[in-house]
Amino acid sequence: MDELFPIASVTASPVSEVAPLAVRLRPRGLEEIVGQESLLAPGKPLRRLVDADRLGSVILFGPPGSGKTSFAEAVACATKRPFTRLNAADSGVPELRKILERASVHFSRRGEPTILFLDEIHRFNRAQQDSLLSGVEEGVIRLIGATTHNPCFALSAPLLSRSQVFEFTPLSATQLDQILSRALEDSERGLGRFQCRLDPLARQHLLAAAQGDARRLLNALEVAVLSTPPSPDGNIEIDREAAENSCRRKMPRYDRDQDEHYDTISAFIKSVRGGDPDSSLYWLAKMLVAGEDPRFIARRLVILASEDVGLAEPSALPLAVAACQAVEQIGMPEGRIPLAEAVIYLATLPKSNSAYAAINRAIEAVEKGETVSVPPSLRDAHYAGAARLGRGVGYQYSHDYPEAISPQDYGIVPGRFYEPIHRGEEKEMAERLKRWRALRSSTTREPEGRPSSPEKQ
Q1: Which of 57, 175, 290, 400 could form a disulfide with 163 if both were Cys (CB 3.0 to 4.6 A apart)?
Q2: 3 state DSSP class of 256
Q3: 445-448: long-range contacts at Cβ-Cβ below 8 A with a sequence spacing of 24 or more?
């Protein structure tokens, strides 16, 4: 049992002074964790489970620097359970089996489960995840899995069914500011011994650049302090320039095939659909800065032009197609301009989903309803013997009638699928259809007397 140890014995040991600030300042208990109040404040669900020592296996998912690792170590400290940790990126089934064997021995001797903190658990494949199941189900281990990926997609269903899932959210600017103050004031684990003074603009920049990530904030702060020479009075003055130099180029949280990708494109489409050009441009900019394929964005705009603007403004589709072609031809960064033009135009147009709804209704009727046969009068009559078979007989050529509307029955009751929306250009279309239906229903209408085109019979 030498390899299993209470976390308290580890946290009681001094952390190396050369360890990164984010490691040195890591909370030593639940009371020091900043953020996640909806889960960890006294009386909240996750906190109640820890305080009662009833925490089972849990999956924590959320962005980097939101406190998942801090929570795992604080739990082990609070419960005084044997604790061990693995990172799924550099571990596999052999290491896992050794831990499970030792945990099983300890459980059989003392009836006490071992806390296993498995960081980046999404990196385990399905077979590796399944190797955890017996230990979790028998209570030999209490798994705390941490992941930045949505567990509904990244983890196996059997493991999810045996675990509780808690979502950690990015830290707010206020919460990050609290962590920043703690780092500057703490002389034992933080930077208090350096006597730093942070310019308000520098503080604002660091908080904005962190994007809710406490680790990113502390890393940038440490670089700024250690790279700035002290003033004659011994203080270290951090101005806006020093803060900017300490941060890598700000990159939004984004991924190419996970939650951030799908959530951002969803917000983008819904903002354009909802008529909010400013929000639409922000989500567009976020995707472009993060390196999203602009052709993907352009294709979605073509879909939106048909699905959401539709017949309320028929010019939306050709403009979206033109933007798509422009992006393909000129590339980036200039491609951002036709994309922005299309986004603003589509966002500010009247909206109609009538074409989208109509084709869905028609497809459903074809797939689930009774098949409608083509009426004899509408069938092809352009071959010898067609008339003897009744093909095309009785067809009423539209152009022989006023407004080119004949009383012809075309097989489907008018209005069954297409329901026009009274906005934009479609309002005029709706009025025209209403007039045509009245004309078509007239039983006394006669052709205008012009000779019919033979090929149209």
Answers
A1: 57
A2: coil
A3: 445/401, 445/402, 445/406, 445/407, 447/396, 447/397, 447/400, 447/401, 447/406, 448/400, 448/401, 448/402
Residue pair 283/270 in contact (Cβ under 8 Å)? The answer is no
Query: Chain centroid to CA 42: how far?
Result: 30
- Chain length of the chain: 457
Q: How many CB atoms lie within 10 A of CB 83?
A: 25
Percentage of the chain modeled with pLDDT above 90: 42
Task: Tell me 258's DSSP state.
Answer: S
Q: Which residue spans within 102-254 are E strands per DSSP? A: 114-119, 141-147, 164-167, 196-198, 236-238
CA 23, 29, 34: angle at the middle one, nearest 5?
70
* Token code pair at residue 325: 């072609």
Mean pLDDT value across residues 7-26: 66
pLDDT in tens, 185-228: 998 888 888 888 889 999 999 999 888 999 999 999 999 998 88
User: Do the strands 141-147 and 58-61 form a parallel or antiparallel pair, or are they unpaired?
Assistant: parallel
Closest CA relative to residue 88, chosen from 124, 115, 57 = 124
CA distance 165 to 128: 19
Phi and psi angles of residue 61, each rounded to the nearest 5 degrees, phi first: -130, 145
Residue 82 makes CB contacts below 8 A (sequence gap 6+) with 1, 4, 5, 6, 103, 106, 112, 114, 115
pLDDT tier for residue 14 given thresholds of 50, 70 and 90: low
Q: Which domains does the chain have, with CATH numbers?
A: 5-167 (3.40.50.300), 173-246 (1.10.8.60), 259-347 (1.20.272.10), 376-440 (no CATH)
